[in-house]
């Protein structure tokens, strides 16, 4: 079997002392920057690029990849502990993870995230090894109409994110879309909602919005009410998962892995959707959907697996086609060019030790991550016992550094402060911020793909239903809408029959 | 406690050692790190050019040249930051052809491209290639031009966004053949290339940095090179100058700039380091991988680049105004 030869080659490359060392360095750095709010893999990898000059290409890429998927592991930590998602993928984790932490189950939530990520990462790497070329071909079949249909599906599913009022959730989605549409129009260059502020020309920075609405808003709320904090600190229960917990997370982890692996290969937003989609599905099929939003372990297990699987499979377009699916992959391509390797579809054949070495290192890296992260959980949880008047200025400080580092732009720090205020008001109004963020992410993509599909079809709307993949997804979206609406329809009918 | 104390001493020492630099004379340049601002995201072709040059310049200047990515607003945010930086040579800008086109594309630019910078020198000309989806009918450049003239806006041209190199190349091509196509902008080359390889769009013209790998793998059809000479990395691809469309010529040049008012000695030192970098075998080898080469040394002087920049601004003004696309 060719695949075994290839994997043997990969492991022979990855299992050298030097490469294991760089893999470890990568995942360690990744975990650290993942934990630090706002500081993401993009600025870190950009900073480290000059160092990779002196390394052999395989070692450089192994380390940079480790930073990327390591950050996915670490990113959930602050989301769970202090309601601070530093990246889009951990927004969903914050919903139930933070509630678990408030109930004293922070250790369990972190362990769930680590184990789910490990499982998902390993399976997704296997898919990457065996099916990379056909999966890449599948991703190429996704044109603008298909992406549009996918976004519609995602948007409709987003209503499930809300644990309270559906109307308020819809309002938040719409507000998110409006915020997301600010900035220069991709098609004409016309500025929208920028009020002649040049810093708004590229729209509102996602990290600033997310950290403001979630993290800073939560800090303000905590300061107003010292009581809830004390309760949370006193009740730190066991760190690991009970048998019952294990039973509950198996399903979500498997489904999350599958969903994340598939959505991860789609460039242009597929990976972002995976954790949202996983959460919606878990809530929909759960027998107790009312527990979601109040500390359901399934709401941590599914999305965490999905985002880690997605992180792994998002390497597929980069490695097999030479096309970056996100800014991190664009950086990796930059690293390849600096190393004198021209990225493209031929890299797999011309540099087999590079391709298979990276794939093999991903298993090693995922293993190192779980070994690294499980013992750390105890330390993270103890962090919660630090008195809040010491903890919160530190969090705010790190947030400012993190947000600034995204674009080296102080404007983003003020943006975060403003959205912190808005986040506090939203909490007071009992509006949940997760649908707002989903609207913010999906809104601009929805518009971009819709307009692109219409441009390419030269104004023919039938393009959405004449292509099988897009038609199927739109059908599913209609079905999902029906499922959301049915209970209220049925209720009305029952009311009618009573009379 | 002891650690704290030594840390405090180290900090104080650092503060003391930094203070005199503020008043350092131009003759002492460079006495600390130089920041090279790239007005685009890390990992892109311009960033790669910058990092290769910066690494070599660090060696000849004896101080680190640190690349900082200040992306946004089509490169004008990073350029604006350099225009307003202290004119001491410690903040420099590596920008591409967008430095010239932004003068027309942005009608409310907060700085003046021609008067707010001191040119250090031209770095490289990255050629572009016109590529089509693998199933596109025409076999060569001449057939392509006939095909576009016949199908007009039935042909879909993708680009990496308003003001990008692929956008400029498309505008120039359409104005050269006098036929508009349907233009579909993307956010960056990656997604546009994805749709071209996937056959969703018909045509794109982009830097060899982005296209060479796809051309060699046969995932796209190459129609022609936009610079006068054939490329060493793609010797089989004819140039447009060879006959199909002789007037159509574009290269994505990259230049180095300092803020206006930077002392002449400092500019000369930066230029000397640039010239050394352009003759550095490692830089030449990596540039060759990108399908480009350093510019001839006589074009890399501040005086020649100043004239060249002014000529480029004048060249693009009518093309952009005729297309009626502005970025603000």
From TrEMBL, chain A:
- Residues annotated as domain DUF112: 20-438
Q: Which domain of life is it from?
A: Bacteria
InterPro entries on file: DUF112_TM
Report the transmembrane regions from the record.
20-39, 45-69, 109-136, 148-181, 258-281, 328-348, 354-374, 386-405, 470-489
Keyword line: Membrane, Transmembrane, Transmembrane helix
Does Transmembrane helix appear among the keywords?
yes
Task: Respond yes or no to whether keyword Membrane is given for this record.
Answer: yes
Q: What is this protein called?
A: Tripartite tricarboxylate transporter permease
Which species does this protein come from?
Ancylobacter radicis
Q: Kindly list the organism's lineage.
A: Bacteria, Pseudomonadati, Pseudomonadota, Alphaproteobacteria, Hyphomicrobiales
UniProtKB/TrEMBL annotation, chain B:
- The reply on keyword Heme is no
Enumerate the Gene3D superfamilies for this protein: Bordetella uptake gene, domain 1 (3.40.190.150), Periplasmic binding protein-like II (3.40.190.10)
Keywords, comma-separated and alphabetical: Signal
Superkingdom is Bacteria
Alphabetized Pfam families for the sequence: TctC (PF03401)
According to the record, the signal peptide region is 1-22
Ranges annotated as spanning the membrane: none
Record-linked InterPro entries:
BUG, Bug_dom1
Keyword Signal appears in the UniProt entry: yes
Q: Which residues form a coiled coil?
A: none
Similarity section: Belongs to the UPF0065 (bug) family.
UniProt protein name? Tripartite tricarboxylate transporter substrate binding protein BugD
Whose protein is this, by species? Answer: Ancylobacter radicis
């Amino acid at each position: 079997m060719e695949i075994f030869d290839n994997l043997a080659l990969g492991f022979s490359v990855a299992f050298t002392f030097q490469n294991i060392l760089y893999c470890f360095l990568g995942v360690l750095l990744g975990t650290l920057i993942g934990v630090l709010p706002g500081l993401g893999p993009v600025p870190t990898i950009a900073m480290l690029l000059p160092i990779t000059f002196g390394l052999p290409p395989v070692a450089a890429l192994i380390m940079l990849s480790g930073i990327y998927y390591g950050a996915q592991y670490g990113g959930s930590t602050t989301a769970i502990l202090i309601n601070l998602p530093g990246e889009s993928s951990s927004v969903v984790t914050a919903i139930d993870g933070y509630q678990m932490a408030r109930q004293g189950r922070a250790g369990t939530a972190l362990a769930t995230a680590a184990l789910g990520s490990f499982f998902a990462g390993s399976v997704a790497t296997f898919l990457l090894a065996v099916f990379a070329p056909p999966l890449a071909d599948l991703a190429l079949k996704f044109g603008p109409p298909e992406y549009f249909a996918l976004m519609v599906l995602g948007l409709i599913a987003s209503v499930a994110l809300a644990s309270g009022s559906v109307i308020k959730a819809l309002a938040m989605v719409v507000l998110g879309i409006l915020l997301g549409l600010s900035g220069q129009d991709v098609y004409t260059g016309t500025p929208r909602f920028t009020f002649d502020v040049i810093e708004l020309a590229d729209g509102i920075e996602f990290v600033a919005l997310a950290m403001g609405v979630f993290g800073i808003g939560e800090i303000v709320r905590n300061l107003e009410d010292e009581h809830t904090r004390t309760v949370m600190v006193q009740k730190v229960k066991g760190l690991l998962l009970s048998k019952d917990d294990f039973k509950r997370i198996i399903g979500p982890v498997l489904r999350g892995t599958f969903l994340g692996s598939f959505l991860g290969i789609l460039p242009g937003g597929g990976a972002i959707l995976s954790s949202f989609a996983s959460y919606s599905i878990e809530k929909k099929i759960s027998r107790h959907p009312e527990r979601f939003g109040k500390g359901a372990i399934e709401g941590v297990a599914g999305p965490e697996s999905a985002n880690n699987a997605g992180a792994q499979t998002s390497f597929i377009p980069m490695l097999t086609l030479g096309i970056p699916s996100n800014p991190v992959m664009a950086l990796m391509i930059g690293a390849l060019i600096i190393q004198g390797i021209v990225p493209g579809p031929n890299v797999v054949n011309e540099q087999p030790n590079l391709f298979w070495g990276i794939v093999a290192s991903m298993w090693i890296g995922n293993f190192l991550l779980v070994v690294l992260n499980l013992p750390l959980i105890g330390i993270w949880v103890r962090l919660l016992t630090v008195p809040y008047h010491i903890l919160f200025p530190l969090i705010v400080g790190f947030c400012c550094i993190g947000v600034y580092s995204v674009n080296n732009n102080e404007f983003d720090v003020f943006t975060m402060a403003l959205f912190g205020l808005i986040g506090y008001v939203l909490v007071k109004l009992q509006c949940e911020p997760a649908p707002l963020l989903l609207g913010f992410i999906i809104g601009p993509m929805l518009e971009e793909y819709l307009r692109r599909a219409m441009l390419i079809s030269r104004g023919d709307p039938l393009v959405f239903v004449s292509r099988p993949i897009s038609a199927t997804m739109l059908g599913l979206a209609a079905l999902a809408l029906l499922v959301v609406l049915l209970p209220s329809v049925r209720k009305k009918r029952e009311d009618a029959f009573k009379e | 406690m002891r650690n704290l104390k030594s840390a405090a001493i180290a900090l104080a020492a650092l503060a003391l050692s930094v203070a005199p630099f503020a008043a350092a004379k131009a003759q002492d340049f460079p006495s600390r790190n130089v920041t090279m601002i790239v007005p685009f995201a890390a990992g892109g072709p311009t960033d790669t050019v910058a990092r290769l040059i910066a690494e070599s310049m660090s060696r000849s200047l004896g101080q680190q040249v640190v690349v900082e990515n200040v992306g946004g607003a089509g490169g004008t945010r990073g350029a604006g930051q350099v225009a307003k930086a202290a004119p001491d040579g410690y903040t420099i800008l590596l920008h591409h052809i967008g430095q010239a086109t932004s003068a027309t594309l942005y009608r409310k630019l907060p700085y003046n491209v021609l008067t707010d910078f001191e040119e250090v020198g031209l770095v490289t000309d990255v050629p572009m290639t016109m590529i089509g989806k693998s199933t596109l009918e025409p076999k060569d450049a001449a057939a392509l031009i006939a095909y576009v003239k016949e199908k007009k806006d039935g042909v879909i041209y993708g680009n990496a966004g308003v003001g990008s190199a692929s956008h400029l190349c498309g505008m120039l091509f359409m104005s050269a053949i006098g036929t508009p196509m349907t233009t579909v902008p993307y956010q960056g080359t990656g997604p546009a290339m994805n749709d071209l390889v996937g056959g969703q769009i018909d045509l794109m013209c982009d830097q060899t940095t982005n296209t060479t790998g796809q051309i060699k793998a046969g995932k796209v059809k190459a129609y022609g090179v936009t610079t006068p000479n054939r490329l060493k990395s793609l010797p089989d691809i004819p140039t447009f100058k060879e006959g199909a469309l002789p007037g159509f010529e574009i290269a994505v040049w990259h230049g180095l700039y300092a803020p206006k008012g930077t002392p002449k000695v400092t500019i000369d030192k930066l230029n000397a380091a640039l010239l050394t970098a352009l003759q550095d075998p490692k830089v030449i080898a990596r540039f060759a991988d990108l399908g480009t080469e350093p510019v001839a040394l006589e074009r890399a002087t501040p005086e020649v680049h100043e004239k060249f920049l002014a000529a480029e601004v004048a060249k693009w003004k009518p093309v952009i105004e005729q297309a009626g696309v502005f970025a603000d």
